[in-house]
Design brief:
Helix content: 55-70%
Low-confidence stretches: none
Strand content: under 5%
Oligomer: single chain
Largest sheet: none
Number of domains: 1
Number of strands: 0
Mean pLDDT: 87
Radius of gyration: 20 Å
Shape: globular
Structural class: mainly alpha
Distance between the termini: 43 Å
Order of helices and strands: HHHHHHHHHHHHH
Length: 322
């Protein structure tokens, strides 16, 4: 029997490998998917077969670039911002169950609350970057990121609360165990709201106002170079993986269902996560960026009422079933 310390170490190593590998796979998927959808080749040479090593080559390139800190910047906050943007997703990944009893951290009774609380911290990275850069465009990008968080955090939490209410628990493995196939129509609105609000919190198109290149260069990341800039890119792709995994656990049955009765464990969870990541990329190609007023209006007049309606429906159904 494996000692406890060895089991914990093995899980930690696996979590770090997944954290470093899955975002790179999503990044490569984005490169190739966008290329095919836009009728171009995309990465083809780095690594040989369809440019599989393009992101590795990009990582080497970023590592070789000079690390520049603007003279007027708050150097401590400027250097800390990429870590603050990236670390929360690693912590959340550690509590997400990928199979029966398969997660790095011990199952928390309030795992959903922990995940949502930690994810909300990630937005501090762009805000810190914008504030510390001593650049008006970077500051505007950071403020836009804060405005999006205020608008989309409410529907995100309400949608997740609907799934927790239906399952009768805040434990992520508990929600998966309580999941049934009829949750697809029952919690369908909550799933769409959660996924859409997650896109906005990640500042992914069509909600990428904080990095609108035609208006504010590259938003809060304008002054970043080298590995610090690469950390922000890694945080974006890691966020896609984490939100896809949370959507899978809350609304698609995790390692169970909805379309296979065969127990594939973590592999079935991973397939769903990659499918949702593909949907994120598809939306980037398909829809133009929203204006700031459209972005806020969509949150407060569409997503918030829908999430409240779903929460009310869930409450009525669960009281009737009790």
């Amino acid at each position: 029997m494996m000692p406890v310390w060895a089991e914990v170490a093995l899980k930690l190593v696996g979590c770090l490998l997944a954290f470093l590998t899955l975002p790179l796979l999503v990044g490569q998927l984005e490169h190739k998917t966008m290329a095919h959808m836009q009728s171009r080749l995309g990465p083809m040479y780095a690594g040989g077969f369809h440019g599989w090593a393009q992101l590795v080559a990009d990582g080497v390139k970023f590592a070789q670039k000079e690390q520049i800190v603007p003279a007027a910047a708050d150097s401590v906050v400027f250097r800390l911002a990429p870590v603050v943007a990236l670390l929360p997703y690693l912590l959340v990944l550690a509590v997400i169950p990928i199979g029966p009893g398969e997660q790095v951290a011990q199952a928390l009774d309030v795992g959903l609350f922990f995940a949502l609380a930690v994810i909300s911290v990630a937005v501090l990275g762009p805000i810190m970057a914008g504030w510390a850069s001593a650049n008006k465009y970077a500051l505007l990008g950071g403020l836009r990121a804060a405005a999006q968080l205020l608008a989309y955090e409410l529907p995100l939490v309400l949608a997740a609360a609907s799934a927790a209410m239906a399952a009768g628990t805040l434990s992520l493995p508990g929600i998966v165990e309580q999941w049934r196939w009829w949750w697809l129509p029952y919690q369908g609105v909550a799933a769409v709201v959660f996924f859409t609000a997650g896109l906005a919190e990640l500042r992914r198109p069509p909600f990428d106002m904080p990095v609108a290149d035609a208006e504010i260069v590259f938003g809060p990341y304008t002054e970043y170079t080298g590995l610090r800039f690469a950390f922000f890119l890694l945080a974006e792709y890691a966020g896609i993986v984490v939100f896809a995994a949370l959507t899978t656990v809350l609304f698609l049955g995790g390692w169970r269902g909805p379309f296979l009765d065969v127990q594939l464990g973590w592999l079935w969870t991973l397939i769903k996560v990659m499918a949702l990541s593909f949907a994120v990329i598809w939306l980037r190609v398909s829809y133009p960026r929203l204006r700031a007023d459209q972005l806020q209006r969509f949150a407060w007049t569409v997503l918030v009422p829908l999430s409240f309606a779903q929460l009310l429906l869930t409450g009525v159904v669960e009281v009737a079933r009790a």
